[in-house]
Amino acid sequence: FMAIWALLAAVNGLLYRGATPAFAIWSVLPMVFLIADYALGLFSNIPVIVYWTEGFVEQDASGQRYAWIKYAISLLIIGAFVIVSVHLQEIGRGLQRIPVGAGLGDALATMREPIMAEFRYSLLFFFVTLLFIVISLMLVASIWGNRTMLQALGIGFFVYVIGTSLGGGWQTAVVHASNPAEYWYSATTEPDAYLLRETLYEISERESGGEPLISIVAVRGTALEDDGLVGWLLRDYPNTEYVGTFAEAARNPIVLLPEVDVNLLNLGGDYVGQPFEIMQPTLAYDVSLVDVVAWMGQRRLRSFVGNKYTVSLWLRQDVYDALPEEERERLGID
User: Fold this and answer.
1) How far lies 201's CA from each of 134, 197, 205, 252, in Å?
2) Which distant-in-sequence residues (6+ apart) come within 8 Å of 77 by Cβ?
3) Where are the alpha helices (DSSP H) in 145-245?
4) CA 290, 123, 179 angle in degrees (round to 5)?
5) What is the pLDDT of residues 253-269, one digit of tens each?
6) pLDDT tens digit string along 152-193?
7) How far is Cα 116 from Cα 100, in angstroms, rounded to an integer?
């Protein structure tokens, strides 16, 4: 049951683009149950066959005499995995220097450049370290037995994965919370979203003495919905009205519009506008083969250019010029 659960959670995580960090719990729970018994077996003490004494088996059935062997070897395994990770990260950074759209010949030419020396060294030591791990495990198995070798490998890998998982969780939840390359975010909030809110604060200070009483007309569309990000940004403005067409928003003092062709826009008067890129869909589903290593380890991509959700704020000319109320009445402006 747990295996089926974990499989379905993995498939869902790959196919469902609306997944958030909270969805990770659906994969974590079955995996915990699946590895719990295996993890306990890694730390159990078993009689060790000491091959250098012609097959001597320790007499202590509880396996206490040589229990320390698997822990000592696991420390070496952890160190080797750390070295592999460091070189893998450098390989990812090196691949980032390959120009976007470069062919195989151009990519190979780039790898031969002097600036890619660290990349070439890391590529060499990455495979050397993997070879070292394999040879070391074979030597351990020839001296302490296969079970001791497998326990040491399992403990080292288990501790390493716990450490990297904690670090990866922190990176996802905090460091990469606004990174459009993060897998667990279907969309990320752009800095312009906060700039839009600050701009509305500034307008409130000029128009209503700092109170959020300005009248805003928002045209629904794309990312501009009353129950979405823009709705949250406008939560302090009770005089916000959501309409369905540009015609309904025409001639109003403050207008918020979704993505629009400015050349075709007609609001029935003179307006000054400013676009705000408020959201960007995740780029994790469009990672190229060259970017895979850097993306998996560091959430880096050679290009962060992608489709963005944009809204535009339009101020009627008198609001933009901050005309006094008396002047507006004299000019017949509502």
Assistant:
1) 62, 6, 6, 18
2) 133, 152, 153, 155, 156, 157, 160
3) 146-170, 191-207, 229-233
4) 40
5) 889 988 877 777 888 88
6) 899 999 999 888 888 887 887 777 777 777 777 767 778 888
7) 16
